[in-house]
Automatic annotation (TrEMBL):
Keywords: Signal. GO terms for molecular function: ligand-gated monoatomic ion channel activity. The keyword Disulfide bond does not apply. GO terms for cellular component: cell envelope; membrane. InterPro entries: Iontro_rcpt_C, SBP_3_CS, Solute-binding_3/MltF_N. This is Transporter substrate-binding domain-containing protein.
């Protein structure tokens, strides 16, 4: 009997240890009192730094609402996009919330929530190419020069679908867009929501926006592999805000109202 109880105690202790080791990102955030989210704040209007140095945006507001529902504070951890997955895997923050497209390649390294929005790649082209370039297929020629942001789906798509064109990537979107404005590149390949804003900020007549998306890209929150409890919480949160009006209010603030642009000037 004593041996049985001893073995039972060892088993229970081991189970508790395993359970503790498997505590997920959401549980850790609740215990800490802060939800830490890795993001590269250069992706308008999802996450960006305003003139006061604050990180704001559509995805930021969704994550702030999530943190509020957990009863914790929200903390944005500014991280370069091409290093954001390694940073998550080395515990620099709890989750990725940085306009990340759910791709099969990334899904081999991360678990993802359900998408919170679906976007697609579009083109900003030099105004001189009006009539010459009508779709991404027209750019698939070695005489053209493409640009996008390093580590993004825009870069992947440029190399995969428009591979005959020359490509040069940048650490941030603004530099890449300015290459097109200044005639150093022929087209900027990036997500539709960003390009809608970028063409306005560049100034009237400086760029042409081919607004028809040519890819399907669900954006989602990324977490470490195996963190299914956190995925469950996030998915339930997304369902809730999409039915109680919160999601629509946040969406309209950033996509239908451009007042926030004044905060960036």
């Amino acid at each position: 009997m004593k041996k049985y109880l001893s073995r039972l105690l060892v088993g229970v202790t081991a189970l508790v240890a395993v359970t503790a080791a498997q505590a997920g990102a959401i549980d850790d955030a609740v215990k800490r009192g802060t939800l830490r989210v890795g993001m590269d704040p250069t992706y308008m209007p999802f996450q960006m730094t305003n003139k006061r140095g604050e990180i704001i945006g559509f995805e930021v507001d969704i994550l702030k609402a999530m943190a509020k529902s957990m009863g914790v504070k929200f903390e944005a951890v500014s991280t370069a996009y091409d290093g954001i997955i390694p940073a998550l895997l080395t515990d620099k923050f709890d989750m990725i919330g940085s306009g990340m497209t759910l791709t099969q390649e990334r899904n081999l390294r991360l678990n993802f929530s359900e998408p919170f929005i679906v976007v697609g790649q579009t083109l900003l082209i030099r105004k001189e190419l009006a009539g010459e370039i009508k779709s991404y297929k027209d750019l698939n020629n070695e005489k053209y020069r493409l640009t996008s942001k390093l580590g993004t789906t825009g870069e992947m798509v440029s190399k995969k679908l428009i591979g005959k064109a020359k490509y040069h990537g940048y650490d941030n979107e603004q530099e890449a867009v300015m290459d097109v404005v200044n005639g150093k590149a022929d087209a900027f390949v990036y997500d539709a929501p960003y390009n809608v804003v970028a063409v306005e900020k560049a100034g009237a007549g400086k760029l042409l926006f081919l607004e028809e998306p040519f890819t399907y890209e669900p954006l989602a929150f990324g977490l470490k592999k195996g963190d299914y409890d956190s995925i469950n919480f996030i998915n339930n949160f997304l369902h809730q805000i999409k039915h109680d009006g919160t999601y629509d209010r946040i969406h309209d603030k950033w996509f239908k109202n451009k007042d926030w642009l004044k905060e960036m000037e």
